[in-house]
Specification:
The structure is a homodimer of 256-residue chains. Chain A is built from eight helices and eleven strands. With 256 residues, the first copy, chain A, is of the alpha+beta class. Chain A starts with 34 loop residues before the first helix and ends with a helix. Chain A is globular and about 55 Å long. Chain A binds a DNA duplex (30 and 30 nucleotides) through residues 164-165, 195-197, 205-212, 214-215, 227.
Chain lengths: 256, 256
DNA sequence: CGCTGCTTTGAACAACTTCAACTTCTGTGG
DNA sequence: CCACAGAAGTTGAAGTTGTTCAAAGCAGCG
């Protein structure tokens, strides 16, 4: 707050970067709204001090006050089953919005936790809503973002409902690869900020299964694994695996 | 269109019922907006001739022109896997909105098909969007509805990722029961408009598994099954089954 | 009446999980 | 800087849950 013109470019801590100069604005809220409207959006957005690994962004049960956009780093969101087990709902990369699912009843049903050092833009929801009331492009972009999340949730439901462990993991790797390259990072070599446990949890598999799959994928020449570092060697092959339950023959040739 | 005051109550075919007098308006779009604003909403909503069993409301690939609200009957939405298998995304009961996932890129990625004779309100999306720009309560309600869908998708991801077949089916039955009673129907006795195949598909199980579960649930006194007709005899018990993976002992006692 | 499509039931099989042991990594304190 | 404890990851073998395959039962319909 109390923004001066300079503070809209870079503040003293190097964090106060305006939406206009943020490399992520094509993925994030400002997309498709006019530069002068972007200024107005800028004035409601707060930049916070970065989160460290395992810090909470919000807890399940908190009332919704703000939406959050990841600027750098990554966040996992998860809810708890009746027995207190975590179920990871999603991993959030730079440019992605969190908290949309809390609008319905004004409270978070998931917890959000940093997987690594992560910086965040905080967007007070009431302010955002009134701004969206005045800026048609912003309302539209909010609808689009929520719709996109619905779409990807639906895709994921398909993965969980119909896909084998191999298909799930290849889907996951492809999704990361795509998202990283959209954000200007390498899509063929990246670090997994989440543990094997988190991956397994997210994909509805056992850790051991994921571990075995990584070695199998590596032996098949699809990827190169070095602890958290993943290099994708054969995206074609991964894509085939991700989609195709058909040619069982091919799969067994490739993977054993 | 060309609505006269009378046509807002009941038209000649008995279909042209205004939102104000629709028993579903508490679940549907109009919720929380003022009566005079409701009139404006009314003028953009079109009532269509009912769909019959297996009729399509829209196909995957169609461009988004309208959102749809179910007035009576039921609709299933599904997408296709790479190999052309159906994956059912959801079942839609009266008062529920369809098509929100198409806003993102203006095209449907699912097909929507009537499970029985079904009447529908059609809401041209562009009109709705401009109206939401003028009526804050409507914008808010749209955000809320989309958020609610995100929330329930997340819950379903948890079901698919962590739950056994028993837990999945009991969750499903409870969800139907709850939704029916919210809509003023009986929550303890209802007809399944979808086939066993559809249920199995939706829950990520084989038909045979679902069939076996129905008989097991019946033998355990939880429900009474008569073809499509379901009577819930022990909601407590179902609830326990739906949540609890803990007490394996109890389960085996109840269900074998 | 005899289809056809949906549902149910049984038995064999496969995929993934669980359990258990071992290895590798990480970070903390001496 | 090393040693050590705990966490995270890998690997093998046994066990389960749910699938697949096959066949029979049932309702609806021309």
């Amino acid at each position: 707050m109390s923004e001066t013109p300079e503070s809209k470019v870079i503040d003293l801590k190097g964090l106060q970067i305006a939406c206009q100069s943020c490399g992520l604005h094509e993925l994030c809220l400002p997309m498709g709204i006019h530069p002068d409207e972007m200024d107005r959006l800028d004035t409601i957005i707060k930049r916070r001090r970065p989160l460290h690994r395992n810090d909470f962004l919000y807890h399940s049960g908190d009332t919704l006050t703000s939406l959050y956009a990841v600027r750098s780093g990554s966040i996992k969101t998860y809810s708890l089953t009746g027995e207190g087990e975590e179920q990871i709902i999603g991993f959030h990369l730079p440019g992605e919005l969190l908290g949309l699912d809390a609008i319905h009843d004004g409270g978070h049903h998931c917890s959000a936790r940093a997987l690594e050092t992560t910086s965040i833009c905080e967007i007070p929801f009431e302010d955002l809503e009134s701004l969206a009331q005045e800026i048609p492009g912003l309302q539209h972009q909010l609808f689009r973002l929520m719709s996109k999340e619905l779409q990807s949730d639906e895709h994921f439901m398909l993965v969980l409902g119909k896909k084998t462990s191999e298909e799930r993991l290849s889907n996951f790797l492809i999704s990361l690869s795509t998202r990283f390259s959209q954000r200007g990072f390498s899509g063929t070599e990246f670090n997994l900020s989440m543990s094997r446990n988190d991956i397994a949890n997210y994909l509805g598999l056992a850790v051991e299964t994921v571990s075995r799959l990584f070695t199998r994928f590596q032996n098949a020449g699809l990827i190169q694994v070095n602890r958290k570092l993943i290099a994708i060697k054969n995206l074609e092959g991964l894509n085939e695996l991700a989609g195709a339950k058909c040619k069982k023959v091919d799969k067994s040739i490739v993977l054993r």
